[in-house]
Amino acid sequence: MFDLSFQQLVMRAIATVVVVTFMGFSVAGFARLLGDKGTVYDGKLTLNPFVHIDIFGLLAGTVGRAGWTRPIEIDPAAGRMGRATPVIVAVLTMAAIFLLGNLVLLALPWVATNWPASSAAFVDATIRMTADVAAWTLALNIIPIPPLLGGYLLASLAPDAHGWLVKRHLYISIVLAALVILTYRNLPATPFGELARLLGAR
């Protein structure tokens, strides 16, 4: 079924953990900056991967290079921007992930000159994969359903519908992961692939 090597799967898994953990931390951090202290009380303002990793998002990222976090609740009433708060948080988080995908590549010259030769090729490839996963994750997360970042648009426009979907995020994650895994070979030929390439994917 898969034409991915064990090494490719390991690199994609590492990259997904890095990107998704940073995504969850960014959502919580930007929500806090905009006035919602709930993410702090919920323990989401952390770089602990176990807080943010959605197992199905990890599976999707490992195979298809696009992952997502566990849902992080943002209370529009607590934010300084009212009902626009979740959308602003999502946009800021997307910008942060885009920057992450570009900034990690700055480490490549250092790896080439300072990293032990025995593992330098693996580290180099993993860094490049992290940039790739960041771009693909951004492309997928524009879909306006939770637990994807685009779901925060729904939270602003239709909070009741968003809340209903969040309660069923496990089923949504399973379906999303299945779709990504079953179609990962064809994803580059879809509009998501075009967007991912615009965002820096190889």
Structural class: mainly alpha
Low-confidence stretches: none
- Judging from the principal axes of the Cα atoms, what is the shape? globular
The pLDDT mean sits at 94
Name the beta content range: under 5%
The Cα radius of gyration reads: 17 Å
Can you describe this structure?
The chain has 202 residues and is mostly helical. It has one domain. It contains eleven helices and no strands. Helix 5 (85-103) packs antiparallel against helix 7 (117-140) and helix 7 (117-140) packs across helix 11 (191-198). The protein is globular.
Briefly, what is this?
This protein is mainly alpha-helical.
Sequence-ordered SSE layout with sheet pairings:
Layout: H1 6-33, H2 38-41, H3 49-52, H4 55-64, H5 85-103, H6 108-114, H7 117-140, H8 151-157, H9 159-166, H10 169-183, H11 191-198
Helix pairs in contact: 1-4, 1-5, 1-7, 4-10, 5-7, 5-8, 7-11, 8-9
Keywords:
globular; single chain; 0% strand; 11 helices; mainly alpha; 202 residues; 66% helix
